[in-house]
Amino acid sequence: MSAQGPSSLRWVGNLLPGEEGTAWWAEVISCLAETTDPGQRRDYVRSYRRSVPKLVWNSWTSPVRYVAPAPVGVVYSSVERRGMDLAFTPEDKFGIKVQSKPGPRTIDQKYSVLLGLIVLVLGILGFILTGFANYTEMTDHAILGLFQTNGFHNTIYLILWVFWLLGAFGLTAAGNQGMNIAVGGALLLVAVLGYLGYWSLLSIPPGFNGDNILDLAVAVATLLVGGGLLSAGGRQSATAEA
Q1: Residue (of 242, 186, 240, 167) closest to 2 by Cα position
Q2: Are 138 and 201 in contact, with CB atoms under 8 Å apart?
Q3: Which of 62, 101, 116, 229 could form a disulfide with 164 if both were Cys (CB 3.0 to 4.6 A apart)?
Q4: Distance CA 149, CA 97 (A)
């Protein structure tokens, strides 16, 4: 186990809002650094793993959030305890910006801008092709000759544009990441069901085709890039350099 903390727990901080992930990770590292017995360290890691669901739930739902305490008996010397001093704000709880001057955009927010523009173009081109006729029926209309579509499918493109627009300009970085994870998961399900032939409502034929491949590619990219993986890597690199 490295001095930087167990790799099996590094992802947990990305699920916590605001600075709580950083504070929680600092506590984990401090706890393990002060424990020399390998068996006890393993017990502490298991304890942290078991506490993850409750920690994430409390972090996003409790009116006054806090960093969950470490296993019983551990005393920290290098990390200041954080408890009731963490103020609850609408931005922290819901991810909605309250600052009049937002900071620089993260990679995942830039991703939301890019994907929002792409689906907006697809929606507009789709409606130019299909109009509102045969709104939920299989058609032979294909955007750029690759992505089969109908009116309902075009509407979904525009709905996704609204979500990505909200994520890029209306939510904090953490809120945008959460939104992207939800959208990415939904698109992954759409890709699987589309391959199996359950999306005639969207004029998506079964099997390997432009629509299902696009849905799968965007789902994976949204989960990895839009979900904050690259931003988290950048934060860890900056922390290591500091």
Answers
A1: 240
A2: no
A3: 116
A4: 35
Q: Which parts of the chain fold into alpha helices (H)? A: 20-33, 38-61, 90-94, 107-130, 151-169, 173-195, 210-221, 229-241
pLDDT tens column, 130-165: 998 889 899 999 999 999 999 999 999 999 999 999
3-class SS of residue 96: strand
Q: What per-residue confidence (pLDDT) applies to 59?
A: 72
d(CA 66, CA 83): 5
Place of tokens 């910006």: 97
3-class state of residue 176 by DSSP = helix
Burial per residue of 23-43, b for 16 or more beta-carbon CB atoms within 10 angstroms, e otherwise: bbbbbbbbbbeebeeeeebee
- Which residue is it, tokens 């309902």? 152
Q: Alpha-carbon distance 104 to 151, whole Å?
A: 37
Q: Residue 230 corresponds to which tokens in the numbers above?
A: 């690259």
Q: Under a CB-based contact definition with an 8 Å cutoff, are residues 108 and 177 in contact?
A: yes
